[in-house]
Amino acid sequence: MFKACSTMPKGKPKISEKHKGGLPDLLGGLVASLEHKENDGGGSSLHLEPGKELETFQLNESELENENNDDGKTDEDLDLADRRRIDKEVGAPVSVSAIIAADEKRSELEFELSQKIINLERLQRIASSGLLDGGGLRARVWKLLLGYLPASRDLWEGELLANQSKYAKLKEDLLLSPSEVTRRKDEAFASCEPKVDNDTYGMLKRHEISHEDHPLSSCQASVWHQYFKDAEIADQIDRDLVRTHPEMKFFSADSSFSRKNREAMRRILLLFAKLNPAIRYVQGMNEVLAPLYYVFSTDSDKQSSSNAEADSFACFVRLLSDSVDHFCQQLDNSSVGILSTLSRFSELLKANDKELWQHLEISNKINPQFYAFRWITLLLTQEFNFNSILRIWDSLLSNPFGVQDMLLRVCCAMLLCVKRRLLSGDFMANLKLLQHYPEINIEYLLQVAQELTPDTSSFHLSPFSLVSLQSLVMAKILLHGKLQAKIFEVDRLYSEGWGPCGPNFCQKKTDGSQTVSKRRFDFRRAVSCFTKLKEGIEETIGIGKGTTKVYATIDLEKARVGRTRLLKNEPVNPRWNESFNIYCAHMASNVIFTIKYDNRLGATLIGRAYVPVTEILNGKVVDRWVEILDERHNPILGGSKIHVKLQFFYVTTDPSWGRGVGSVKFPGVPYTFFSQRQGCRVSLYQDAHVPDNFIPQIPLSGGKFYEPHRCWEDIFDAINNAKHLIYIAGWSVYTGITLVRDSRRQKPEQDITLGELLKKKASEGVRVLMLVWDDRTSSGFLKKVGLMATHDEDTASYFHDTDVHCVLCPRNPDDASSIVQGLEISTMFTHHQKIVVVDGAMPSGGSEKRRIVSFIGGIDLCDGRYDSPFHSIFRTLNTTHQYDFHQPNFTGASISKGGPREPWHDIHCRLEGPVAWDVMYNFEQRWNKQGMKGLLPQPWELDAIIIPPSPVMFPEDHETWNVQLFRSIDAGAAVFGFPDTPENSAMAGLVHGKNHIIDRSIQDAYINAIRRAKNFIYIENQYFLGSSFCWKPNGIVVEDIGALHLIPKELSLKIVSKIEAGERFTVYVVVPMWPEGIPESESVQAILDWQRRTMEMMYTDVVQALHAKGIEANPRDYLTFFCLGNREMKTNGEYEPSEHPEPDSDYSRAQKARRFMIYVHAKMMIVDDEYIIIGSANINQRSMDGGRDSEIAMGAYQPYHLATTQSARGQIHGFRMALWYEHLGLLHDSFLQPQSVQCVQNVNYIADEYWDIYSSESLDRDLPGHLLRYPVAIGNDGTITELPNMVNFPDTKARILGAKAVYLPPILTT
Predict the structure, then answer these.
(1) Predicted confidence (pLDDT) at residue 472 exceeds the cutoff of 60
(2) How far apart (Å, rounded) are the C-alpha atoms in residues 624 and 643?
(3) Residues 859, 1162: Cα–Cα separation, whole Å
(4) How many of the other CB atoms lie within 10 Å of CB of 1177?
(5) Could you point out which of 13, 146, 387, 902 has its C-alpha 20 to 30 Å from the C-alpha of 1306?
(6) For strand 1171-1175 and strand 1191-1197, is the pairing parallel, antiparallel, or unpaired?
């Protein structure tokens, strides 16, 4: 076999020595060469296990129609029918000149074959232009070209007889059943024994049957053990052979003729598998064998055709010897492995058409292994009709430089022949084209292949190519879209050494019932009482076996994307029948189904089943049983299989992709617990308070101007005016705060504290119910204030023995959590929803009935939250913040030591109409889980005093809103009202976490909004980290991080899609300078490290997309990050502290520099000025998971203010412009088009200038605005680094880029 070399071969090419010899004795030569290569090759991530699929074979309806009966035809009739069908595939009419040329070729070929010594070079030349059917010419030529027949005709008969004899001996030695082997052994033994009386002669005595000869022997050396292993391979071969060219009765009809052909091919493939344990059988080898067996068995020479099986086996071995390295895992990284071949193919394309190579591999990211892997390994047998395959093989086998050389040329020519379609296609269109190659003139294709230059043998694999392709194998293909999956059942599960029912060793009767093996029955009766007692104890404390609980998960590579509920007492045949709607933005080679036994200390792996991603890319349903493998990729005990169904929808097939809300008929986010509600009213709040006349006139459509709302004033009024109910849920609720503090906006009783106000309303007969997160660290034996300083114990004590019902509710784990998980959830995670629900007066005032009004968002009713867009850090310490000084970032900070205080920027909203009832229902669900019984009003009580859910805006009112509620929550926090069946749960967008139900619709809402986006996205959030499955593995084990939500990856993929389409798109992200806390602390530094990795992943995507399009641009023109800060000159009459901070501390340095960050606590996203999400959820795994922090959010738009033919100019636009005015201190016309280069460059320029002022050593004026560039630099490859001379945040010793945590687990900081 010719291997890759650095230079073109010179002189006349020669047939390799291996093609001159006969069939290797028991294939020893091939096996030995494999063992030698395995020692030389490195490890690889590309692993082709025995039985693993190279290609999915599916029959469409028209193909299935061909699987009819034989109508009584003879074998010869079927054979002739197939040959005629193949002849018709040529299609074009035959000219006279073509007939003459064919006759000349036949004469020339027959002359060459009649020579005593065959001139192989001349034979190669003739065969390269195509061989003629009939007369056995193709069969003889192929045998010569493959080296099966020697060049000397005199040796043919002897070689054929010798090889056929060897093949017969192989079958006799390797394919006999153990019972036949034993029988022959017995006969041989009996023939050597003296004759005995008939009375004593008969069945072997027990002591004469060896352990290895017993069918139930578990000994590895047992012939029966090996027989059962071979039977599994044989079953796979049988399944594949039936699907081999289903349009041809020769292979797949249900006739004796077809069955005879399949049986012969079965023996060939099984022999190959047994003789080559390093390779065994790989699905697809049947397709490679098919042309050989067909050509040889249809030879017109009856003697030759009768020996087709032996000849096919010998030639099959020779043919695979030229590409067998592709099937050997240990050789993947070697110069003869599949990675090398794919690299040579890529280099060949690049050398012949760099434009097409760049479009496919750089722009579309369609790497050769997505399509050429199948082309190369199956020798193009799946890409063309059978007649074309035979013609192509004529050229492959006759190529003087070897089959692989010509194969790569043909593959490259296949791309060149559809170049125009490929250049105009996107990722999905091109992938479908290459995986379903169109009909083509084969002679033209082969001509293009012959003319390619340079020869592929001149290519060698560079180290870069090896690394690149190896990483490609690990993360094979981008799945960006939605995956609908269903897990039905596992057919049977066995426990090693026992049986299909674990230690009970159950066996199924014919009627389906179960019985206990009699062999173990007596023992089990003797210990039955003890066993039941033991299992009861184990079940109670969660240790040991107890009740068997089984569950399954779905992974895209190492990213968990789905999990079933726990099934109890179904250890043999677990049936889930669960459906999943999975959003995907993952690089993956397989969809992996993992089956586990659960226990309270964790889980035990049963096995995994793999469905290649390539099977689902075409969008068709894949519904099949998949073999379950152990960690070494061997079938688990009993050959168990799992029944799954998959269908993938690429993101661009979604009608709403890139089209925004699009229409007033937009139905909202699908598969969610709460539907979209119409006829609502929404009030948007920036910060807790906005002073009069702060916001300049911002024009809206219809000649209106934006009017800001005031959050805490509206909440004060809502609580104060409530008549029947006040529901509050919060991460923290502090009774000592006042809600109204603007001296220029006086209100009656404005100085009353929140605690006094709630007590007053409760005393008036209003039902006041409060759910406050119970911080477990605030228990008495630690410290009452708790690590989070939420005042939970103080609040509970304040309302003790009052009419206010305040419940401290811990973030309880669900009942199915392991002990470790339970500890994690209850101590690390929180109830993070911020809710106020009240009854309010009807707008007209004409009815005594009331309506429901709800508030949700990011602002807790606690200390440190009241602020205005001025965000003063020193000037309000003797007024607004005199009794509300908040500064948790410095040790020992207090009002007595002076500023800077920590300013607080946040976003909230008020909801009226049907969606307000959804917020109330969420509170009721939580109260029913963790609150006091009997305190919630009954429905009939509400009917008498509250109007039912109904619109508060007329449909024709241009200020109406459509609103949808979303949550992150699970059964540990709310259980009442969740669907109780898997089907209904899936329709409501709920997923299972072992034995509890999870609502994670907030993440779904973000993903849907990002995918719909057309022009720009503006985000403000307290945290920004996630999509860890795409992070670079520098210094971490990526799969251990678990920040799996998709939002950052969806954002970068949206930008990339716009770059590839030549369209503008900009993403703006505002985050805090660092997470609240001591900036040098391990937790803060760990979060900053996660944030850096997230940013780097996104910028890498953007930079690569720009490079692929040849665009020279600053990546910050597409994706840009900011933080907020303030710096104030000292003024007369300012608060003078009585004490001072510790010298040379962060506190003292910040006080001297008179600067500090503005803490961004908002959780908001605006898309195209037409859609907005506001809530309590951060962009991290804690908030998006559903099983960690409980969250609530809303997504809303105004149907009459959509970005259709022109930009949206409704309330959302006004709100964004008001926020930008707050942050930048000015408005500019370019801000009307945030996606434009002018806008983003203006905003970046201003933020850069403000950062220079903020970080400078001197101060000569107030900071004009608050928006600062996030202090990092972006490298040419997307790498995140520090700005020059800016390693630490100003006034601190805290690294801007963060640092990996040493002690804290990732689950706490992600």
Answers:
(1) no
(2) 6
(3) 8
(4) 30
(5) 902
(6) antiparallel
Q: Where are the beta strands (DSSP E) in 691-795?
A: 725-730, 767-773
Burial pattern 888-917, b for ≥16 Cβ within 10 A else e, equals ebbeebebebbbbbbbbbbbbbbbbbbbbb
Q: Determine which one of 476, 549, 1161, 1201 is catalytic.
A: 1161
CB 922 within 8 A of CB 835: yes
Query: Cα separations (Å) of 626 from 157, 642, 982, 989?
Result: 47, 5, 22, 26
Instruction: Answer yes or no: 620 catalytic.
Output: no
pLDDT at residue 85 is higher than 70: no
The question of whether 1168 is a catalytic residue gets the answer yes
User: Which stretches of 1148-1266 are assigned E, i.e. beta strand?
Assistant: 1155-1157, 1159-1160, 1163-1167, 1171-1175, 1191-1197
Q: Rounded to whole angstroms, what are the CA distances from 1241 to 1066, 1248, 1249, 1269?
A: 11, 10, 12, 12
- Of 1162, 1217, 1231, 1213, nearest in space to 695 by CA: 1217
pLDDT band at 125, cuts 50/70/90?
Answer: confident
Choose the weakest-confidence range: 424-438, 635-649, 1009-1023.
424-438
Distance between CA atoms of 572 and 676, rounded to whole angstroms? 42
Cα–Cα distance, 502 to 976 (Å, whole number): 36
The pLDDT tens digits of the residues spanning 109-121 come to 888 888 889 988 8
What does pTM read for this prediction? Answer: 0.69
Contact 1224/1006 with Cβ under 8 angstroms? Answer: no
Contact 810, 909 (CB under 8 A): no
Predicted confidence (pLDDT) per residue in 938-948, tens digit: 888 888 899 99
Structure tokens at 450: 């012959």
Three-class SS state of 407: helix
* Catalytic site includes residue 832: yes
Per-residue DSSP letter, 361: I
* Burial of 785 (C-beta count, 10 Å sphere; 0-12/13-18/19+): middle
Active-site pick, 359, 689, 1163, 1223: 1163
Residue 791 is encoded by which pair of tokens? 């005042």
Cis previous bond, 454, omega within 30: yes
Which pLDDT value is given to residue 547?
Answer: 65
The whole-angstrom separation of Cα 1183 and Cα 1181 is 5
Distance CA 168, CA 271 (A): 11
| Nearest by Cα to 28 from 229, 265, 317 | 317
Among residues 332, 906, 1168, 1291, the one annotated as catalytic is 1168
Among candidate residues 689, 831, 834, 994, the one labeled active-site is 834
Q: Are 893 and 925 in contact (CB under 8 A)?
A: no
Phi and psi at 770, nearest 5°, equal: -130, 135
- Residues 1274 and 1280: beta-carbon distance below 8 Å: yes
pLDDT at 213: 53
Is 197 catalytic? The answer is: no
φ and ψ at 1287, to 5 degrees?
-80, -40
Pairing mode of beta strands 1155-1157, 1119-1127: antiparallel
* Tens digits of residue pLDDT in 555-610: 998 899 999 888 888 888 999 999 999 999 998 889 999 999 887 566 889 999 99
Active site residue 839: yes
Name 490's bridge partners.
642
Active-site annotation holder among 230, 311, 714, 839: 839
Residue 1255 corresponds to which amino acid?
S
Catalytic residue flag (residue 1107): no
- Give the Cα separation of 320 and 325 in Å (integer): 9
| Spatial CA neighbour of 400 closest among 137, 19, 6, 7 | 19
Residue 575 half-sphere exposure toward CB, CA atoms < 13 A: 2
DSSP state of 671: S
Catalytic residue among 482, 641, 832, 1049: 832
